[in-house]
Amino acid sequence: MGGSRRRLFADAVHTRLWPIPAAAVTAALIAGILLPELDAVIDDTLPPTAANLLFGGSADAGREVLGVIASSLITVTALTFSLTLVTLQLASSQYTPRLLRTFAADRFVQRTLALFLATFVYALTVLRTVRSDSGDDPAFVPRIAVTFAFVLTMLSVLALVLFLAHLVRQIRIETMLHHVHTDSVDVARRFLDPRRTGDGRDTRPPPPTPPHPLESAASGFLVSIDEQALLRAATEAGVVIWMDRAVGDFLVAGTPIGDCHPAGRGDPLDPQSMDALREQVTRSLGTGLERTATQDIGYGLRQLVDVAIRALSPGINDPTTAIHALSSCSSLLCELSGYQLGPVTLDDDAGITRVRLQRPTWPELLDLVCSQPRRYGAQDPVVLGRLLSLLRDVAWRTEDPHHTRAITDQLGRLERTASEQNFDAAERGELDTLAEHVRAALEQHWTHK
Asked: Looking at the structure, do residues 102 and 146 belong to the same domain, yes or no?
């Protein structure tokens, strides 16, 4: 399994609620079987000091304790699931459905559910081993196992209190925005090597022969590309592959996602070689029902912008949340300005370019952040002011001429939008001042060059 597929599999496991609870239930089942066996072997040989710390009740008392633990833990588990689902529903309706993966990936929630379910299963498993004296069989109370059930119950009570406190913190918009920002920065650090080529311009040369189209084998979002597998396929086939779709784009089965042509002026590919190449390309691409943050550079900004425009909708009408989201966008754009964005090329061992991959350019990401909030927040001078402040922040952090031209373009569009609104003199003056700050930040870079 390639590195890309391993990351995709790890992300799929990480963002689902069931893997950790399922593993905990399995471990609890095994422990519930083995600990009573251990009890039967060493119970009579325990020193008095250790024995006094263990459960000392009768078989009926043991059954009562284990029964109460099992019944109470399944009730607590149901409550925990209910609170989790309410939180997911609130995040989806109040902020954006694209935040659901962030909640589902919360390790604290997964481990809390795992502890509750494991305690329930363990208590039931141990309960079956408790025997009263029936004449033929002597009474058996697995004191170590019952005591361990009591310890798990105490941990579950503590976990419930901590879970409620954690849930209150997680539902805050600041916490959610922080998680998205952190995940996006991690993706950028993994995949955006500043030494790789690509400056946002399309430098594709004309192919020497008519290109062969590469079609998508399945419909869905492109969630991952195994770059090394794609490079290996192109090198073995002696071709150059040009991908027209980036991670995060939606693919439709049977439609072109790129093309290939022989390297140099070699002979055209025969149909059998093309079929083998298409199969290798298909295996190197991962598709899914939804976008993920595994390799998607722009997905974090998409989530943050969705929070902003949802907050600006008439049904929500929460411009303060929109401003918080735009502040996170500003921070993330400043972080991304230090990486090489745009198309990237992959070379073989001989230094021959074999693969060209699409990635969003920094101006495209800036437009993603500015366009919709500018449109939906056009009548709010505070939102427009935050967008101008965002342009000022990113202007201070970048010296790339492509970036500065994009900032200048967005500044002009914001000023035109503001000029069309019915703002009073004080509001308009504040916006004009912020616009001058953006220009000053841009001019400062040019002065130092």
From this structure: yes
The two three-digit tokens of residue 324, written as one number: 């918080």
Task: Give the model confidence (pLDDT) of 319-336 as tens digits.
Answer: 999 999 999 999 999 999
Cα 220 → chain centroid: 17
Q: What is the CATH number of the domain that holds 409?
A: 1.25.40
**198, 214, 309: which is closest to 255 by C-alpha?**
214
142 CB-near residues (< 8 Å, 6+ apart): 35, 36, 39, 40, 43, 62, 126, 129, 130
| 442 and 336 part of one domain | yes
Mean pLDDT within 241-267 = 87
Measured distance CA(408)–CA(410) in Å, rounded:
6
| pLDDT digits 0-9 by tens, 46-86 | 888 888 889 988 999 999 999 999 999 999 999 888 888 88
Task: Clarify whether residues 56 and 135 are in a common domain.
Answer: yes
Task: Inform me whether the pLDDT recorded for 9 exceeds 90.
Answer: no
Q: In what order do the strands lie in the sheet with 256-262?
A: 212-215, 256-262, 239-246, 353-358, 344-347
- pLDDT of 40 > 60? The answer is yes
| Listed residues 116, 138, 171: the one ending a domain | 171
Report the predicted TM-score, pTM, of the whole model to 2 decimal places: 0.86
Domain count, the chain: 3
Pairing of strands 285-288, 220-225: antiparallel
Number of H helices, E strands in the chain: 16, 8
* Whether residue 313 sits in one domain with residue 281: no
> pLDDT, tens digit, for every residue of 356-369?
999 999 999 999 99
> Domain boundary at 288, 319, 345, which?
288
pLDDT surpassing 80 at residue 381 = yes
Range of the domain at 223: 212-288
DSSP string, 208-243: SSPPEEEE-SS-EEEEEE-HHHHHHHHHHHTEEEEE
Tokens of 201: 């311009």
Has residue 266 got a pLDDT over 60?
Answer: no
User: Do 32 and 167 sit in the same domain of this protein?
Assistant: yes
